[in-house]
Backbone:
């Protein structure tokens, strides 16, 4: 019961909060004539002005991200010479810098390092936390542009203005409020170096600390997931209590949920947004039910032991139990967050499948902005097949879906599958991967599969149990993260650009409706068949084989 | 379709020709047009090489591989067979069309010289003389003369039609026969470009260009194939990690089972069969694209006369002026109509007889016939001079009593408001009253329009009537809107306006002045009796000259797309069961626990793989009838349509292979094949 209550409370309250926040986000991204001075200020800061077509928008986005990449790379590479380094953190290896920069630029936050060991405060704040803001803002901006294209506007807006709106009007205020809540709950927020404590045994213990609350706030809200400390939100100073655990879980999913409402509002079809929200929520609830169920079921290893009834507590933060762990695991992977509240490596095999499923689909709320953008790809495919089934040239909100749109959508879905399966195959068959896993058999396979899944979904969580700070891992996942970030943004924007150029057709009773349960069903089936089936064999060889191979 | 043509799908001749065609289509250059089937062919060839190697070296299970190779090739052949069969049916149609065209000759007039030349030598602009008994050698326009022409060869209608220079009946079609008089025809098309030529090419499938929809679907299917290629190509590495390996023929089997072969195999058959159904319906389309556009129609412009109402008006009521005896009016109207052979005249006689009037013509009566100048007709008998006609025309004959005129106006206005046409009747200078001529709305059209509305299609009635009459008929027929006193310019403007609102418009027309509107409409159906200009401007020609057919054409277009969508859904849904058949079979050696996934309890790994591949192959011929006939279509809103098709082809597509593969597995293991 307590499990159900926790799930219902976290999801329910967050979903309720997301409605007004989504409305606010739509207003912030689309102020119209409401706040002319603010818009002028943004124009002055960036020197940008006027609307952009999809190509110009993409170019601005790429150039901006390239600059951010360079800035972050420079700070990390020079951290030992830069200020705000009270604990004297040293130089990092080049491949780790590349991987980390790629990871944070792409909103992935895959961490092949341990923050409290390797990073100076300047690196944490100016490089990593800064990117946590602007990468999330990039996603929200891209979604706003996509929605404008679909809404049939003359242009997609202006990236440099959008990214400021998303940063200053959405992420900054929400993160500020959330950080204050976290400080009140007891998270540290200080620029002093590590604390020295004398333990009862008389030993000297060094306790790492720093501006944790600020970092955790945007880590959770921006679907970033890169923790201040290596153990992420299982670390007692990142996640101090049951209450901090609950609000941090809510924060994971808050903005991705709001993005769906924002999308619905900008395209002028809030009901369509609600239908998409429903489909995403269905997948989320199914994976949560699966993971919590599998994790609470006693495994053969515990059979007959006194702790059998408690479920699988291995790798759990004891304060949060066998429900909090898997719930976090699903939330963090259904979105592209990737912070962890339990060791995924220690989850029961089938429980481990659920986070992977979330990342394979990568659209059951998904990352800030980009989750909804990924869902758009499934919508294009669903609308195309369903449109034929109602006997009309497929249309989405009055735009005809034709060869070009189908081509771009299927290409994006192909890229996601190819990066996960191709990467896994390469590393599973070579010492690059095979020598780095800590477990044999299907579990080791899951460790490799999970790492590429996480990189391609721009998630950033680790299954762990993997010695991943090696040159091949750093380079491969770095490249995958970059490609997996920008391909699924550029291709949908290209689709929207192509839709914008077409004459819109009127809707009638003969048009496929996108606001009813029938469409939701069609979309669900499309996601299962085009998304999940692709990964069926990999899932069978990893978690399913492990589950079925366990002694009964 | 309500009017489904009952033709058998498999005659022996057609099937034999299709088998030959299936083999001929193995040519890689032909196969390449269908990327998914091409991929199937390539891996089948690859598997064949491995099979031969296994035979030679004796390594591996050659018997199992041989069966796999057999079924893989059969998959490709079944696809080719479906296409060849559809083409064969089209060819049979085309042959009938072409036989009329064979060896046509014409008498070409150049200045004063006449020469007999083959039809293929006639170029656009040539003038030919066609006399009684001769076949018209090329599509063209009558420039001189008038003749009756038998067009049975293309329309199946044996009653001859009049073709004359000028006006709306000037177009003639190659292959039709002049049965009286003579005409001079100016050829309007280059050889091989005539309507028949284009139609023959379309139904044969030889020059069938893929429609935009088909291209998009092909891209989707090709993309899926690429995704599954990655899925399959990565499996050996996964297996190697687990310390095992997968035989290449098994990988090939899984690949072919997963890629959407079913829909790809049937794709072109669906398209060709759609054109074929249209031709059976006596409609010629200039492109497949036009047929699909018909399915997208939002607005249907329909001419009132002949489409919504019967062509002829019928007398329904006699309305006498105040102070005039009803019997006087009826008798006068009857007398005036006795010699009137028009449908209106006959209906007046019939109505009067119903009322019990037996009057017949008296000897010495002089019939006054209707002329376009006077617009009245009647009879002079003894001292009476009875006239009937349009109100204004009749009133012009004499200076009538203004009071009676006012009373008559009141009556005729009421008739007009009710959608009728008033016919005034006068005896000399005495106005008697009016006959209510009613436009009879065809039975059943109201229901058809309701159907269309449910499908989301708006109907607009086009009429030359005044707005009052038009509104009344529109209400009675249940159309959504009407355009009264319509000129060709009005029609064009209406089409443009609808299109600017993002709607697709269909219309039919026959006159030269309809040509701009036909060209502007997204689907323009020209009547075969119409002018050459109209036929060139439209993208379809209706050989039966039945404007109501637009409604059926819309249905055909929708059915074409729905068949594609339904089979795509079915094809992809099948993959779930195929995974459950093949994956445990491949990996059970590595992880014995995976036997749990063998939910169908298939006999052995080999049998499981073989059964999945056999199912994948056999489902193609099983679905050929559905592809050729089209999925059942009934007019209903899009949401209900989707739910229905999703239920049948989506859920059915998931469930049926579980059953099918299990049954095949029972047979395969029972026969000891694997």
Residues:
């Amino acid at each position: 019961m307590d499990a159900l209550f926790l799930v219902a409370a976290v999801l329910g309250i967050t979903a309720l909060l997301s409605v007004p926040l989504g409305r606010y986000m739509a207003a912030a991204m689309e102020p119209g004539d409401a706040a002319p001075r603010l818009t002028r200020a943004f124009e002055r800061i960036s020197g940008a002005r006027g609307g952009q077509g999809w190509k110009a928008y993409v170019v601005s986005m790429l150039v901006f991200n390239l600059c951010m990449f360079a800035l972050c790379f420079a700070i990390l590479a020079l951290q030992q010479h830069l200020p705000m380094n009270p604990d004297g953190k040293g130089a990092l290896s080049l491949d780790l810098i590349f991987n980390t920069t790629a990871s944070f630029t792409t909103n992935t936050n895959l961490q092949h390092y341990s923050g409290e060991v390797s990073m100076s405060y300047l690196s944490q704040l100016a490089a990593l936390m800064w990117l946590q803001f602007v990468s999330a803002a990039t996603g929200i901006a891209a979604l706003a542009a996509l929605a404008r294209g679909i809404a049939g506007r003359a242009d997609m807006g202006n990236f440099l203005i959008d990214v400021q709106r998303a940063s200053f009007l959405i992420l900054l205020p929400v993160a500020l409020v959330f950080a204050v809540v976290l400080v009140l709950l007891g998270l540290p927020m200080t620029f002093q170096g590590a604390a020295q404590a004398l333990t009862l045994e008389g030993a000297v213990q060094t306790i790492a600390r720093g501006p944790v609350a600020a970092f955790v706030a945007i880590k959770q809200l921006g679907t970033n997931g890169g923790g201040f400390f290596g153990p992420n939100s299982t670390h007692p100073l990142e996640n101090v209590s049951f209450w901090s655990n609950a609000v941090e879980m809510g924060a994971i999913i808050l903005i991705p949920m709001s993005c769906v409402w924002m999308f619905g509002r900008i395209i002028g079809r809030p009901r369509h947004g609600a239908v998409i929200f429903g489909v995403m929520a269905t997948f989320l609830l199914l994976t949560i039910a699966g993971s919590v169920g599998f994790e609470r079921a006693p495994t053969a290893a515990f059979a007959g032991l006194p702790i059998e009834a408690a479920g699988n507590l291995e790798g759990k933060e004891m304060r949060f139990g066998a429900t909090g762990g898997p719930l976090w695991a699903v939330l963090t992977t259904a979105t592209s967050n990737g912070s962890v509240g339990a060791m995924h490596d220690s989850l029961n095999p089938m429980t481990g499948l659920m986070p992977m499923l979330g990342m394979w689909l990568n659209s059951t709320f998904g990352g800030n902005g980009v989750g909804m953008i990924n869902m758009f790809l499934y919508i294009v495919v669903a609308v195309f097949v369903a449109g034929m089934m109602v006997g009309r040239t497929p249309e989405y909100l009055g735009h005809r879906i034709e060869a070009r749109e189908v081509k771009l959508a299927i290409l994006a879905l192909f890229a996601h599958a190819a990066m996960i399966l191709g990467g896994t195959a390469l590393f599973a068959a070579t010492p690059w991967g095979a020598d780095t896993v800590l477990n044999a058999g299907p579990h080791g396979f899951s460790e490799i599969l999970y790492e590429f899944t996480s990189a391609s979904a721009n998630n950033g969580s680790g299954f762990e149990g993997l010695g991943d700070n090696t040159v091949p891992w750093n380079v491969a996942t770095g490249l995958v993260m970059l490609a997996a970030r920008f391909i699924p943004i550029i291709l949908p924007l290209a689709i929207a650009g192509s839709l914008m150029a077409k004459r819109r057709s009127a809707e009638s009773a003969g048009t496929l409706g996108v606001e009813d349960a029938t469409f939701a069903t069609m979309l669900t089936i499309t996601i299962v068949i085009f998304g999940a089936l692709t990964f069926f064999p990999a899932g069978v060889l990893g978690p399913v084989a492990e589950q079925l191979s366990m002694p009964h | 379709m309500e009017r489904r043509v009952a033709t058998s799908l498999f005659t022996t001749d057609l099937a034999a020709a299709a088998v030959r065609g299936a083999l001929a289509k193995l040519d890689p250059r032909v196969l390449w047009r269908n990327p998914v089937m091409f991929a199937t062919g390539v891996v089948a060839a690859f598997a064949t090489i491995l099979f031969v190697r296994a035979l030679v070296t004796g390594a591996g299970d050659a018997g199992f591989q041989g069966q796999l190779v057999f079924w893989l090739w059969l998959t490709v052949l079944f696809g080719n067979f479906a296409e060849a069969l559809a083409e064969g049916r089209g060819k049979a149609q085309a042959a009938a069309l072409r036989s009329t065209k064979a060896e046509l000759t014409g008498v070409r007039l150049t200045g004063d010289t006449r020469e007999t030349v083959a039809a293929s030598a006639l170029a656009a602009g040539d003038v030919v003389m066609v006399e009684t008994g001769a076949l018209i050698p090329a599509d063209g326009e009558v420039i001189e003369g008038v003749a009756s022409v038998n067009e049975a060869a293309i329309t199946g209608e044996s009653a001859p039609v009049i073709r004359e220079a000028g006006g709306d009946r000037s177009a003639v079609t190659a292959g039709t026969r002049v049965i009286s008089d003579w005409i001079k025809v100016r050829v309007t098309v280059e050889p091989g470009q005539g309507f028949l030529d284009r139609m023959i090419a379309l139904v044969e499938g030889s020059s069938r260009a893929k429609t935009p929809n088909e291209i998009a679907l092909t891209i989707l299917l090709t993309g899926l194939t690429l995704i599954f290629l990655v899925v399959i190509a990565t499996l050996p590495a996964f297996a190697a990690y687990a310390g095992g390996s997968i035989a290449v023929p098994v990988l090939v089997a899984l690949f072919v089972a997963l890629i959407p072969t079913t829909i790809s195999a049937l794709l072109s058959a669906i398209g060709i069969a759609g054109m074929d159904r249209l031709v059976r319906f006596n409609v010629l389309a200039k492109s497949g694209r036009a047929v699909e556009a018909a399915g997208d129609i939002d607005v249907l412009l329909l001419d009132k006369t002949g489409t919504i109402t019967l062509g002829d008006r019928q007398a329904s009521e006699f309305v006498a002026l105040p102070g005039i005896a009803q019997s006087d009016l009826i008798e006068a109207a009857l007398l005036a109509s006795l010699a009137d052979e028009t449908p209106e005249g006959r209906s007046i006689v019939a109505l009067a007889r119903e009322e019990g009037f037996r009057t017949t013509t008296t000897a010495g009566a002089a019939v006054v016939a209707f002329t376009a100048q006077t617009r009245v007709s009647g009879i002079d008998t003894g001292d009476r001079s009875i006239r009937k006609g349009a109100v204004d025309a009749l009133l012009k004959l004499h200076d009538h009593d203004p009071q009676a005129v006012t009373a008559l106006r009141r009556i005729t206005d009421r008739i007009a408001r009710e959608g009728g046409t008033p016919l005034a009747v006068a005896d000399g200078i005495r106005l008697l009253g009016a006959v209510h001529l009613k436009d009879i709305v065809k039975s059943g059209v109201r229901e058809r329009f309701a159907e269309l509305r449910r499908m989301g299609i708006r109907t607009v009635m086009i009429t030359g009537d005044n707005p009052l009459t038009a509104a009344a008929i529109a209400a009675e027929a249940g159309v959504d809107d009407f355009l009264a006193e319509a000129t060709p310019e009005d029609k064009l403007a209406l089409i443009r306006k609808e299109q600017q609102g993002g709607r697709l418009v269909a219309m039919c027309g026959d006159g030269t002045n309809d040509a701009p509107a036909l060209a502007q409409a997204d689907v323009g159906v020209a009547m075969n009796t119409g002018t050459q200009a109209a036929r060139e401007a439209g993208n379809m020609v209706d050989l039966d000259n039945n404007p109501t057919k637009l409604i059926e054409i819309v249905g055909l277009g929708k059915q074409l797309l729905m068949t594609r969508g339904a089979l795509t859904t079915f094809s992809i849904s099948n993959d779930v069961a195929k995974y459950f058949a093949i994956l445990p079979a491949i990996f059970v050696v590595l992880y014995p626990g995976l036997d749990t996934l063998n939910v169908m309890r298939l006999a052995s790994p080999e049998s499981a793989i073989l059964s999945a591949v056999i199912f994948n192959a056999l489902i193609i011929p099983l679905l050929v009838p559905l592809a050729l006939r089209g999925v059942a279509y009934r007019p209903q809103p899009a949401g209900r349509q989707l739910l229905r098709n999703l239920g049948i082809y989506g859920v059915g597509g998931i469930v049926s292979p579980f059953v099918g593969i299990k049954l095949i597995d029972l047979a395969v293991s029972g026969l000891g094949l694997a």
In short: The first helix of chain A runs from residue 2 to 29. Chain A has a mean pLDDT of 89.
